[in-house]
Amino acid sequence: MKKNFNYIIGFALLLAWTLSGLANPCNANNNPEKKQNKKQAKQIAKMLSKLSLEDKVGEMTQLTLDMLSVGEPFNLKKPHELDEQKLQEVLVDLKVGSILNCGGHSYTREYWHEIIDRIQEVAKQKESKIPVLYGIDAIHGTNYTRDATLFPQQIALAATWNTNLAESMGRVTAYETRASAIPWNFSPVLDIGRDPRWPRLWETFGEDVLLARRMGTAMIKGYQGDDLADSKSVAATMKHFLGYSITLTGKDRTQAWIPNRYIKEYYQPIFQDAIDAGAASVMINSGEINGIPVHCNPDILQTLLRDEMGFEGVAVTDWEDIKYLHSRHKVAASYKDAIAMSINAGIDLSMVPIDTEYPKLLKELVEEGVVPMSRIDEAVTRILQMKMDLGLFEKTHFDHDEYPDFASEKHRLISLEATREAITLLKNEGNLLPLSKDTPMLLCGPTANSLNYLNGGWTHTWQGADSTFNHQKPTIAEAMKAEFQSVSFVSGAEMKELSNKEAIIEAAKKAKVAVVCLGESTYTEKPGDLDDLDLPAAQKELVKMIAEQGTRIVLVLVEGRPRLVHEIEPLCDAVVMAYLPGNEGAQAISEVLVGKVNPSGKLPFTYPRFANSLLTYDHKHTDRISQTFSLEAFQPQWEFGHGLSYTKFDYGKPSLSSSVLEDNKAITVSVELSNTGEQEGKETVQLFVSDEYASVTPSVKRLRGFEKIGLKKGESKVVEFKISTRDLAFVNKDNEWSIEQGDFTLHIGPHSLPFTYNKSEQQK
Ligand code: BGC
């Protein structure tokens, strides 16, 4: 049936629909936890009334720990030896209210306590006695604390499609971060990773909105628990608000051009869910959208974030971003102008983080009437509220005894479980995998013997290249040698250079199977910008050399983004995607290769085949048209959601409770999944829906539901999804959430099923 365009929802109807809570999947006003605690509000107002302007601008300032340490920032005399004079100047004279990170170092939790206890002690010497809010990037576990439990990076966590694991990861990280005396975590990343070139793709939950919404909310729940003041909770930060991940160039912090409609449909919902889940803070996108840097854009910082989305927590800048309005973006003629622009646009706290000019200039701006006192009071109120919510006014020190599970086996097993479920089997020609324990094996490749490469960026140091990383955890080579009986390890190649050519050829001739571990070295942000998405030539050469010897190849990819492998994929019988699996990665990979673990990861992004075809799964119909006008232009290496198992899952034909969807009434889709293979396994059932015709060109399909289930050999289960109109809505040409009457098709496994949406008389 052709869609009747007369039924496009008009504004009045939409309003009515919105009121009924259906129109906008990102309804802002439904979080009871956000109701202000009146008593606290009074306390904060009283506290605020006693603060001087110096106190207030100090509260709005965040400096890096380097600014309190002996030596110069980035060139410390000794890693973070506190400088008593600087402590006085920064915390007492300037009254700076927040400190962050430690960039190039990681410490034992004992040392963290020493540092932070001293900071809090000195902060108490100022008249207001307001405690310091310490923040850190604990993005895959408490990655700046030595021996802490390290998890797979976010993209790998997304590949589990298991929200319970995201929540558990959040719980453990909160526990171990508070055990390090740190109450505020700059995580999760809620940007969607839709461009494989982008160097922070691995910090995201991948390319899909629904997957990122579910995983992000679960992680925030894990971080924040039921009570922020609990000694096992940390405040989460939704970052980077918003549209950070989709630059034109694919390079970090370059220009983005994003239509509002796209922002609303693809970016906003993830942040809206996080707000509704009670996220305590937000970090702002360092980039510019449509020519306006986000840090000085009141349409985004005030109208969208506050007025429309209802966020009440603290908005912190990203690193040095106010200064960059002047020095990089060139929209402010001076640093002082930049401060006025961003504070007036809605920034509460500036991650300055390496100058002491900021609070002085902000004070001047208030005295000159350029920044109104009301804006300052609003920002400081939010910051004090967050400090109060975290219980910092009562207690900033927690004894080690309160954290018996720090770096425990219990925590390690949670991380191991997440890693096992992340590993994604992309190809398994002739069931080469799993391998028997006595397979004569060559193990090689640049990622085969490095714990750093398994963990990636933000591990002990910002770029993750910590050369002192203690090797209590195995590398792939070490884990494989423990798991298999006949492993000959020859490195064979650095990231960009072949080595030991002859040794490789010799070892390949003797081996039955070569496990070749390729991928990327560690990086994040600018240093991770790429000029070429292809895997470096030397790595491809390694595979070709081995293939020439007739050895069967298992390719293991340890990488934060999908580097192109189309040249070598046909030479490999099996391909295992490990992403950046973290400290437990080697064990999980070897368990998958030997068959102790049945892989259940699914790609959270489309793995591209060619650099000029970087389509996501939810591309448009016109993207499918090839040079010959056939509909075959979308030929990724592997599709979003793809991932094989050692067992076999059969999808029954799905059934619908009704083939007609009506307003205010969900329909139920049921599908029976059976494990007809030879072993137990887990499968993520994915529900996609295609809107056949719409006034805004519809995507070929969109993910509208998923559920991961485990099935024993021979077992079957019925999985149910409910679909309502809000699940199918899109943002129309008037920038409003909308659903139009007409035909839809749902897709589950190999099956497709049509249904129709009929608008009620009321909604017409
Ligand atoms: C990154 C943020 C991070 C901040 C503090 C910035 O460079 O973009 O994601 O939270 O540094 O380390």
How does this structure look, described?
There is one protein chain. This protein has 21 helices and 29 strands. The protein is of the alpha/beta class and 764 residues long. It folds into four domains: 1-28 and 38-105 and 114-124 and 298-324 and 334-390, no CATH class; 137-285 and 392-414, TIM Barrel (Alpha-Beta Barrel), CATH 3.20.20; 423-624, Rossmann fold (3-Layer(aba) Sandwich); 649-758, Immunoglobulin-like. A six-stranded mixed beta sheet has the order 13-18-17-16-14-15, sandwiched between helices. A five-stranded parallel beta sheet has the order 6-5-4-1-12. Strands 21-29-28-23-24 form a five-stranded mixed beta sheet. A hairpin with a 5-residue loop joins strand 26 and strand 27 (737-738). Helix 2 packs across helix 14, helix 7 packs parallel to helix 8 and helix 17 (476-483) packs parallel to helix 20. Residues 1-29 have low confidence and may be disordered. Bound molecules: beta-D-glucopyranose. Beta-D-glucopyranose (BGC) is lined by residues 101, 137, 186, 239, 283, 286, 318-319, 525.
Any descriptors?
764 residues, TIM Barrel, Rossmann fold, 4 domains, six-stranded mixed sheet, five-stranded parallel sheet, 29 strands, 30% helix, 17% strand, binds beta-D-glucopyranose
